[in-house]
Design a protein that fits this description.
four-stranded antiparallel sheet, single chain, Aspartate Aminotransferase, domain 1, seven-stranded mixed sheet, Aspartate Aminotransferase, domain 2, alpha/beta
C-alpha cells in the first residue's frame, strides 16, 4: 500500500523551461513576464520591510486590501489575497470541487484550471476557445453538466490573448446557473482597458470571483502576489479558511501597494507592451504568418507546422518562446512581448529557424 494518494500518484509536475542562468545571452520570452522592472517605489517599499521580517505579515493583507478596495470600489470583505492568482484559482477549486463534481474550463488556456480540478478529484470538461482565441460563450454554457460547480472564463485568454466582449461576458454571467461558481481569470486585465468586468458581474445573481495578479502589468512576478474580487463576503471567507495562514510576505504586500499607487509607471509599462505587441504582430505578418488578435502581453501565432522543432531551433539561437501543446494547437507558438530590440531578436530567430 502506497502512502501516495491515488490522485497525486497520477500527477506530474508542470514543465517550466529553466530560467537562463545569466552566464550566456539567452533571451527569455516564454513566461509572459514584464520586460521592464517594477516601479522604483515598489522596490523601495519592499526593501523598507526587510528589517522587520522577523515578524509575520498581516493575514488579511493589511493596508493593501484597503488600497485595493479604493482601486476597485468593492468593500474590503469581498477582497482576498494569496501568493499569486495561481494560488487563488487553486483554492477556488479546493472549496468548490470534490469527487462527483465537475468544472468547465477553456483550452488552450491557463493549465491551473485543469490541474487543480484533478487534484480536487473532480472531472474537467474542456471547451476549446474560438478561432479568434477568445473563450467561446455558447460552448462554455453548453458544456455545463448537472454536477458542474465551477465555470472558468479567462479574458484576455492565457495562451491565445483573445478577449471577451462585454456582451459575451454578460451572456455567460446571466446563464451560468446560480448554484455554480463563475470564475473570471483576469491575469492580463490591465492590458485590456476596455473590459468592464466588475460592472458586468454585478448583475449576476449567482456567485462569482475575479482573480487578478501583480505579476504581469505591475512587474512583480518574483514576489508572488495576487488578489480575488468576490460577489459576496462568503466567497472570501471560505478562501481564507483553506489558505495557508501566513502565505503572503511583507515585502510582497508592501511592493504591491506601492505599485498600485504608481499609475505613471503602470502607464509606461502598458505603453511599452502595446507598442511591442504591434511590433511583433507586424513582424509575424511579414513572415507570412497570421497571429491571433491579442490584448495581453504576448502574441500567439499559427506556424502551419509543428511548433516543437521551431522551439528547439529558436532556443539554439538563444531565444526561449513557448508552444501551445493542447490538442489541435501543436502548430501554435507564443512569444512574450519584450523591449524593441528583444522583439526584433525574437523575430530574427524565428525567421532563421523557419528558413533553416
Amino acid at each position: 500500500m502506497s502512502w501516495i494518494a491515488p490522485i497525486a500518484a497520477e500527477l506530474r509536475a508542470p514543465i517550466v523551461h529553466p530560467r537562463p542562468d545569466g552566464a550566456g545571452d539567452t533571451l527569455a520570452l516564454n513566461l509572459n513576464e514584464s520586460p521592464l522592472p517594477p516601479s522604483p517605489r515598489a522596490v523601495e517599499a519592499a526593501m523598507a520591510t526587510i528589517a522587520g521580517v522577523n515578524r509575520y505579515p498581516p493575514t488579511d493583507g493589511g493596508s493593501l486590501t484597503a488600497a485595493l478596495s479604493r482601486h476597485t470600489g468593492l468593500p474590503a470583505d469581498r477582497i482576498g489575497l494569496a501568493c499569486g492568482s495561481d494560488m487563488l484559482l487553486h483554492l477556488l477549486c479546493m472549496v468548490s470541487l470534490a469527487p462527483g463534481r465537475s468544472a468547465v474550463l477553456p483550452f488552450p488556456s491557463f493549465t491551473r484550471y485543469g490541474l487543480s480540478t484533478r487534484i480536487a478529484g473532480a472531472r474537467a470538461i474542456p471547451v476549446e476557445v474560438g478561432p479568434d482565441g477568445a473563450n467561446d460563450p455558447e460552448r462554455l454554457l453548453a458544456a455545463i453538466a448537472p454536477d458542474t460547480r465551477i465555470v472558468f472564463c479567462c479574458t484576455p485568454n492565457g495562451n491565445t490573448g483573445g478577449s471577451l466582449s462585454r456582451a459575451a461576458l454578460a451572456h455567460v454571467a446571466r446563464h451560468v446557473p446560480e448554484g455554480v461558481m463563475l470564475v473570471v481569470d483576469e491575469a492580463y486585465a490591465e492590458f485590456d482597458p476596455e473590459a468592464d468586468t466588475l460592472a458586468v458581474l454585478a448583475e449576476r445573481r449567482g456567485p462569482w470571483a475575479v482573480t487578478r495578479t501583480f505579476s504581469k502589468a505591475y512587474a512583480l512576478a518574483g514576489l508572488r502576489i495576487g488578489y480575488l474580487l468576490a460577489s459576496d463576503p462568503r466567497v472570501t471567507e471560505v478562501i481564507r479558511a483553506v489558505r495557508p495562514i501566513f502565505e503572503m510576505t511583507s515585502p510582497a504586500l508592501a511592493a504591491a501597494e506601492a505599485a498600485l499607487a504608481d499609475t505613471a509607471h503602470l502607464a509606461l509599462l502598458l505603453k511599452t507592451t502595446a507598442e511591442g505587441r504591434t511590433q511583433l504582430d507586424a513582424g509575424l505578418r511579414g513572415l507570412g504568418l497570421a497571429p491571433l488578435p491579442s490584448r495581453a502581453n504576448f502574441i500567439t501565432t499559427d506556424l502551419g507546422r509543428p511548433a516543437a522543432a521551431i522551439l528547439r531551433g529558436m532556443e539554439a539561437r538563444g531565444v526561449l518562446v513557448r508552444g501551445v501543446m493542447d490538442p489541435g494547437w501543436a502548430n501554435f507558438l507564443r512569444i512574450t512581448v519584450g523591449l524593441p530590440a528583444q522583439n526584433a531578436r525574437a523575430l530574427a530567430a524565428l525567421r532563421d529557424t523557419l528558413n533553416g
